[in-house]
Design brief:
With 481 residues, the chain is of the alpha+beta class. The chain folds into two domains: 150 residues, Rossmann fold; 267 residues, OPCA outer membrane adhesin/invasin (Lipocalin, Beta Barrel). The protein contains eight helices and 18 strands. The strands form two sheets. Strands 6, 7, 8, 9, 10, 11, 12, 13, 14, 15, 16, 17 and 18 form a 13-stranded antiparallel beta sheet that branches. The protein has a five-stranded mixed beta sheet with strand order 2-1-3-4-5. Strand 11 and strand 12 form a beta hairpin. Helix 3 packs across helix 4. The longest helix is centred in the first third of the chain and has 26 residues.
């Protein structure tokens, strides 16, 4: 066994500790990664693409939170993305690099530009543009290009050298900061916009979905409208006639109305069609919607032919229903077909109290039709701004109001149809005018058990049938979304 002196042991222990520190320092230097920050990507789907790039970068670099860079930008009042301001902030934070991204979209195709600036002087070190296709996600080819050019250049970035003089800290009011950043500028010297409240400014980098271009919006709203609401005026007339057996002198009162004005509102809403992103395929349920209609005569009165007494009259029609639309072809100028069914009410009433008070001999019952209207509609564009449309419906009538009471004309077999056709003209992507004509026909075949059907007192019905018709037109202004 060999003994050594205490002094020799101390010197040996000190040498070992020093060696350990030297090795640890060497290992730390060898494993050190350059520090970079990735600023918020601008443009559509910028957030998701930024995350994809960050995942590639952090394998070769130390990622510094963007929030720290933003705070330092504000403190140093270095808000521009240009060599001077980038270098000022990066040097104060000892950042080796700053990565900026911009997403653009043209004709439904996405493109991503990624730029790496050196923290030492703010100059552009690498710049790469990758095509993403119709879906805003990093393809294998895009990842390869970003790894090779952007990530591959990070280890060779020079160390940031701090400026000798210290920058004076200046307090900046938050509102002033946001106002300055919103301004914008040249492509290489723009406000970062990082402190903007998310979604506050339309089309800013903070929104995942910027407004569509005029052409994209026009195309999207041609056939895939989420909301189509229109309001305007209508004119409508009623004609009610009875078929009477030959030789009967006592004719029943019909109705021969003139065109009268009304207020007309119609709307369709497709809840799953609000996303108008170009190139995005919508599911089958995006064609399922609801429809409402309301048509009320504003002023109308009636009187017997040759009479002098005006009888207050009211007419209103409303309905709710479901629609399913089907586009033929992929072009916005292609035709469209709609299938649907609705629940509807149509009322035409005379003031019966006024008839009795004036002792008028009028045997015209009020009607209150309740019906379902299964049918099909078509729309065909003519050029860019114009389209024609037509709608045909079969009426399944459940109730007619007073007409089929035994004291009136009695039970009957009732059927009907509803036709609508018109022209649509788009003033711009969202606004349009629409004009058309309507015809509605309800036919009765009486069973012969009604009291008013016996016109000559022989207990036999003399009125086998009747036809109730409504026809007119409308002009409306519409809004699309």
């Amino acid at each position: 066994m060999t003994w050594i002196s205490i002094g020799s042991a101390n010197r040996f222990l000190a040498a070992c500790i020093a060696a350990v520190f030297v090795l640890a320092a060497g290992a730390d230097v060898a494993s050190a990664k350059n520090s970079v920050v990735v600023l918020k990507f601008s443009g559509p789907r910028g957030r998701s693409l930024q995350k994809g790039v960050e995942a590639l970068v952090k394998k070769k670099a130390k990622l510094v939170p963007e929030s720290k860079f933003k705070r330092q930008q504000k403190r140093l009042r270095a808000r521009k993305i240009n060599p001077r301001d980038v270098a000022k902030v990066a040097q104060s934070m000892e950042l080796h690099g700053v990565i900026i991204g911009k997403v653009s979209r043209k004709r439904g195709r996405y493109r991503l530009r990624v730029t790496l600036r050196a923290g030492a002087d703010g100059a552009i070190v690498e710049d790469v543009t990758v095509n993403l296709g119709r879906k805003p996600r990093l393809t294998a080819r895009a990842k390869k290009d970003i790894r090779r050019k952007i990530v591959g250049a990070i280890p060779d970035l020079p160390d940031p050298i701090a400026e000798p003089e210290e920058e004076e800290e200046v307090a900046v009011d938050d509102a002033e900061w946001e106002e300055e950043e919103i301004g914008g500028g040249r492509d290489d010297e723009v406000a970062s916009g990082d402190d903007e409240p998310e979604g506050e400014v339309e089309g800013s980098a903070d929104k995942d979905e910027p407004p569509l271009s005029k052409q994209e919006l026009w195309n999207a709203l041609a056939r895939d409208r989420a909301v189509d609401v229109a309001a305007g005026v209508s004119v409508i007339a009623r004609r009610l006639s009875f078929t009477v057996n030959a030789g009967i002198a006592d004719q029943p009162n019909g109705y021969n109305g003139t065109l009268v004005p009304g207020a007309y509102i119609a709307a369709e809403v497709y809840p799953l069609a609000f996303d108008h992103e170009p190139g995005k395929k919508k599911g089958a349920l995006a064609g399922l919607g609801v429809a409402v209609v309301y048509d009320k005569v504003l002023k109308i009165s009636s009187k017997l032919e040759g009479g002098t007494v005006d009888i207050a009259t009211a007419q209103v029609r409303w309905g709710v229903g479901v629609r399913y639309r089907l586009n033929i072809g992929s072009e916005p100028s292609g035709p469209q077909v709609k299938f649907g069914v609705g629940y509807n009410k149509l009322e035409f009433t005379l003031d019966q109290q006024a008839i009795m008070d004036n002792m008028l001999d009028i045997d015209l019952p009020n009607v209150a039709y309740t019906y379902y209207d299964p049918g099909v509609a078509g729309r065909l564009p003519i050029g860019k701004q114009m389209a024609i449309y037509a709608d045909g419906r079969f009426l399944i009538i459940n109730d007619t109001g007073d007409m089929q009471l035994t004291e009136n004309y009695g039970p009957a077999t009732v059927s009907g149809l509803d036709l609508d056709a018109g022209l649509e003209y788009r003033l711009d992507a969202r606004l349009l005018v629409r004009g058309g004509v309507r015809y509605q026909r309800i036919a009765y075949t009486f069973d012969g058990d009604g009291a008013l059907g016996d016109r000559d007192g022989d207990a036999m019905s003399d009125v086998p049938s009747a036809t109730d018709q409504f026809f007119g037109g409308y002009v409306m202004g519409g809004y699309l979304f």
